[in-house]
Amino acid sequence: MTSITTSAPTETPSLIRRLGANLQTYGLIGAVILIWLFFAVLTNGTFLGARNISFLFRQMSVTAIMSVGMVLVIVTGNIDLSVGRLAGFVSVIVAMCQMQLWPKLIPQLFPGQDPVNFVVWTTLLSVLIGLVVGTLFGIYQGYVIAQLRVPAFIVTLGGLWALQGAILIVTGGQTISAKQEVFLSIANGYLPTWAGTLLAATVTVFLFVSMVLSRRRKLKYGFALPAMYLDVLKTGIFAAAFILYVYVVNQYNGVQSPVLILAIVAIVVNYVSNNTRFGRYAYAIGGNREAARLSGVNIRNNLFALFVLMGFLCGVAGVVLASYVGGGTPAAGTGMELDVIAACILGGASTLGGEGTILGAMIGALIMATLTNGLQLMNIPNEWQYVIKAGVLILAVYTDVRLRRNR
Description:
Blueprint: H1 15-21, H2 23-42, H3 50-75, H4 83-109, H5 115-147, H6 152-171, E1 176-177, H7 181-188, H8 193-220, H9 228-250, H10 257-275, H11 277-287, H12 289-294, H13 299-325, E2 327-328, H14 336-346, H15 358-377, H16 382-406
Antiparallel strand pairs: 1-2
Helix pairs in contact: 2-15, 3-10, 3-11, 3-13, 3-14, 3-15, 4-5, 4-6, 4-13, 5-13, 7-13, 8-9, 10-11, 11-13, 14-15, 15-16
């Protein structure tokens, strides 16, 4: 009898084949580079200045935080039209708590508070309330969509209108100021330059360690391995991009605190989407809902949890928004849901479900923020900014459709 031994297959695909497998991601990165160079030329280099790059990433943080959750919603074949207004409502509630509720309540409950501790406690409690409000609204919408089986489009459209009314009721049509130093530092603070440098070194080590562990897992479970130099090249590009970002923003004031919040959110949600049942089930539901159901996936529970997550992320975005603008305004979050959805579509999420990545959504958010920032530097009127962004979105969707047909 002849014995047959098997070992983990290994492949060394060519660089062209490797690029083809990730064409969409590399295409998005190339698009960002081209757009940046375009605006750099038209603004005589102002666009690529350290100050503007710092502002650019700060501007994209609120949209990107919500895009991280929205991409998973779209992956399942659903949509959430209420995210902008929910973030706006949270920002209004947080501002009201920060400046009206806690300053009256805390001195009565805890007299003799040290002024420094008082400001810290009001900020922490306001942030907590904001996260709870966002999560509770996510629970409500998730229950109606998943358990009562009302289409997400209708539920979230109703949520958009209800939240718009709630914002006007709470604000009374006037801005609620929340300009306390500790609270403002959430979205307007910076890491010291030494901390940014340490962060860049830590992220670089993390990326390469993750690459090695990923290769070991693939080998353990019998997956084909790409050539080592390809993985090293890919990881090196991302590490170099982050190091360059830290170097540039350190020339201004340092790494921005909202960008750090965004990075933490993106890393956690990316891990959940790629390494947990919850995340993989979302792709299964979007790819083939009936097949997922027959495979034992509890679609109702997964959709419910997904909208709860979306509500929580809107709470995070609302806190950052309130800190960024220094309060809550009657127009808070207006139109932001369109930027969030557009960022996901630009990032490669399919409106039919089943496709989309966290990295793609973040790059899409960066493209949207880049267009806004660059057009503002060029003093393009607001009405034409909308027209240009609409054209870019349609072109991106058309390109995506053509690529899918070719594949």
